[in-house]
């Protein structure tokens, strides 16, 4: 009983050891320290090796002994990724934000398949396990965390998501309308491929996105004229999401340039940086504007 209470006390101390959490945080989340840089290098190498293992396993060109070595290596890498995942949760004050974030979900999905293979027994489960193991390739998305430009792109996409969603909804309405009109024009033609509205909508999507498979084509003059109009519309609307994301990237890059160190007064710091890369002073943290705040700002003007 004394042993159990002693173990509980040590576990409680471990969970509330702020000094240990800060040290782990500086290693796992920061890249400014030597230990943080070494951890990032090891993590990048492990991610790359794990993805290569997935590719090699799918080739089926090695003897059984080689596959055994690949499987053991995968178990070791999975253990490392599990420790890394738990360490990130442990050192954060609000772990829920990481757990339900994009990279948190990627970390979890990339680690689960190996553990699922231990519990799903039976020959009829082998294909399911194999499919789960392919999820390991998601680890490659973690490499974005080590590329500042990648972080800028992901942040810009996240901020632009509401505008792009509205634009996507508009395009969805447009292709549905154009497909229905094409069905009205070509649907009564003998042996027409526009024999139903879903096929017509599929044709409108292929045409408007300028993919042009050519598996469904109009034959009447009116249908060909409408097809030409949709092609021209497609060229004009494809650039809209690119413009939205580009404008957001420029805005985010300007915010990054404005981040100035309070000690040495030098700018150009990354958005996620906590310390100045020139003198090491702690930077003032600026919360990113949410789409709601941006909308209110636009309404004021």
From TrEMBL:
What's a BP term from Gene Ontology annotated to this protein?
action potential
Q: Which UniProt keywords apply?
A: Ion channel, Ion transport, Membrane, Potassium, Potassium channel, Potassium transport, Transmembrane, Transmembrane helix, Transport, Voltage-gated channel
Select a single GO molecular function from the record's annotations and give it.
voltage-gated potassium channel activity
Instruction: Indicate whether Secreted appears among the record's keywords.
Output: no
Keyword Transmembrane assigned to the entry: answer is: yes
Q: Which residues cross the membrane?
A: 38-56, 68-87, 99-118, 164-185, 225-250
What Gene Ontology cellular component terms go with this record?
voltage-gated potassium channel complex
Designated name of the protein: Transporter, cation channel family protein
Q: Which organism is it from?
A: Phocaeicola coprophilus DSM 18228 = JCM 13818
What are the top taxonomic ranks of the organism? Bacteria, Pseudomonadati, Bacteroidota, Bacteroidia, Bacteroidales
């Amino acid at each position: 009983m004394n042993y159990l209470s002693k173990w509980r006390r040590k576990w409680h101390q471990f969970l509330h050891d702020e000094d240990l959490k800060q040290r782990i945080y500086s290693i796992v989340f920061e890249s400014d320290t030597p230990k943080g840089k070494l951890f990032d290098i090891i993590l990048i190498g492990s991610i790359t090796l794990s993805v290569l293992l997935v590719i090699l396993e799918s080739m089926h060109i090695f003897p059984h002994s080689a596959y055994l070595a690949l499987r053991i290596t995968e178990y070791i890498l999975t253990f490392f990724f599990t420790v890394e995942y738990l360490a990130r949760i442990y050192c954060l004050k609000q772990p829920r934000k990481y757990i339900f974030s994009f990279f948190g979900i990627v970390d979890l999905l990339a680690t689960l398949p190996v553990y699922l293979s231990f519990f799903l027994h039976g020959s009829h489960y082998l294909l399911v396990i194999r499919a789960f193991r392919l999820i390991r390739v998601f680890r490659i998305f973690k490499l974005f965390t080590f590329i500042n430009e990648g972080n800028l792109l992901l942040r810009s996409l996240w901020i632009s998501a509401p505008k792009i969603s509205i634009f996507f909804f508009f395009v969805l309405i447009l292709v549905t309308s154009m497909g229905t009109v094409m069905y009205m024009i070509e649907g009564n033609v003998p042996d027409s491929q526009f024999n139903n509205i879903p096929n017509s909508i599929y044709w409108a999507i292929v045409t408007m996105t300028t993919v042009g498979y050519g598996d469904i084509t109009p034959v009447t003059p009116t249908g060909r004229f409408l097809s030409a109009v949709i092609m021209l519309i497609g060229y004009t609307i494809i650039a809209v999401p690119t413009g939205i994301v580009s404008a957001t990237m420029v805005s985010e890059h300007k915010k990054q340039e404005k981040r100035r160190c309070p000690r040495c007064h030098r700018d150009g710091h990354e958005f996620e940086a906590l310390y100045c890369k020139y003198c090491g002073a702690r930077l003032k943290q600026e919360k990113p504007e949410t789409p709601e705040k941006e909308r209110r700002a636009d309404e004021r003007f």
